[in-house]
Each structure stands twice: as structure tokens, then as C-alpha cells.
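User: Could you check the structure of this?
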Amino acid sequence: MPDSQPKSQIELLDFGSETPPARLSYAERVVHDGVGVSRCTLQPNLGTEIGATQFTVAIHEGTPFQMEWRLPEMRETERRRIVSGDLHINPGDRPIFQRWTSSPRILVIAMEQAFIKQIVGEAFDGKELELRTQIGIRDPVIEGMAAAWRRELVERGAGGRLYAEGLGSALTVHVFRAYGDGLSRSPPVIGGLGALRLRRVVDYIEAHLADDISLRDLAAQAGLSTHHFGEAFKASTETSPHRYLVERRILRAKELLLGAEQSIAEIAISVGFASHSHFTDNFRKLTGTTPSRFRIDRT
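Assistant: Sure, the predicted C-alpha cells are below.
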């Protein structure tokens, strides 16, 4: 028999606002220009149509709970036990009826509609897209990506805009390729950036090592879309734009460490790292030693 549940009040959560929605509380939160990740605890919900103003991927991290939901195209309410690792994908501004009685803990990746529209338009040749809402699914690709998002929370967004936008772009393309209707991905970029474009990008990075560079900034130097730039850059350098930026920052830091004019904390900021600890972590990963030990051994 069709579910006779009456139509509920609609709530749209705004994960881009610094003020948490009344429906949830933030434990941790990082946002870079419309691409954000947060760890939240939801209040019990006895039956409401809930959505978000952003495109969201929510991954359950707490104890199992019973959830009920009904998509707009469904006549009956679905019921399922949600466990850690189950995830929900929902395009922005598409509320669905939901009900639960516990206080679920979730990791939410939220991206503004303008960012999604740009990445999808570039990746799928400007096609009109329809994304199906997914509730309580398992996706090993997204779960693998979630590790990087969790690390950004732990490091309080130390990766910066370029890293967040790169993560968001990869997640967006995967979601629309896996769950979008009538889509086929455009062919990958072949041949890289070319010598002149690559030189412009490299020169820009060298001149802005201390800045919070975005994918849009670098793509503009190459005269490409942000999505195609990322693929072309990797084809040319065999590394991602963010990884290349970190490597160049560490190289500049090594040069500065050979002098005695600046403290390690001052060097960290001058080459674009968010903090002394973030600089030290990245320096150790790439060199096998700490900045202080590097300085002592060479002076």
C-alpha cells in the first residue's frame, strides 16, 4: 500500500554558513571558497523534508541507526539500518522526506552549485545533467577520497584552496560519472600543457608560493578550464598541481634554511604553509628529516 505520510515542512541546510543550521552542530569544519568539509552531529528528526543549498556527500561515522526516507518520485517510504561508512549523495535544493530518532554523526562534503556546474560542464562537455539522489550506499572510491577530507579537518584546512578544489573536482567527476543519468565522460587530455603554457604556470607558482593559490588561478595562466587543466598539468609533470606546489615550497624553504636570518616559523609562513607544524610535516614527508635538523646538518 502507498505510504500515507502527510507532507512535512521543508528544511534546507546551508553548510556554507559559519552559523550552523538548527538541525545540527559542528565538531570540525573547513571551507575554501565554496568547497567545504565538516564533521556534524544531527538532532533526532521525527519526520521532515530535509535538503541542502549545496551539493552534498554525507558519510555516516557513528553507531548504527534506523533511517526512513522517501524520494519525490517514490510512493512508499524506504527503511534501512545505516551503519558506519554508508553514504548519501544529494544534489543541492532537492529536499527529501527523512526520519530518524537517534543523533547520527556524519562527515559532510558540501560544494556550492556554481562550483559543481563549472566542474561538470567542463568534464562532460556542457551536457544537461540529472543526478540521482543516493541513500545509504557504499562506494569504495568515495570512501578512499574521504581519508583526504578527514586529514584536512585534522590539519584545519592546511592544504589550502588548491588542495580542497582538487579534492572537490575529483569527487564531483566521480559522482556524476557513477550516478548521473545519460552521461559519458569526455576524453582525457592528451599531450599535456605544452612548453609555453607550462612555463607560464610554473612561473606563476614560483611568484606566488606564499599565496593561497586556487585551481582557477593556475588554469587561467594556461588558458584552460579548471578540470582540463588538472589533467593536462599531470600529463606534463606526472604530479598534481597541489603536489607540485608543495614540492616547490619545500625547495624554496631549503634555500632559506641555509641562512640564519629567519626562524623556521617565519620561513614556514613565507613559503605558504599554514603553520610551523604543517611545514614540518610536509618537510619530513619529502626529505625524511625535519627543518631544524636540515638546518643544523648544513650550517
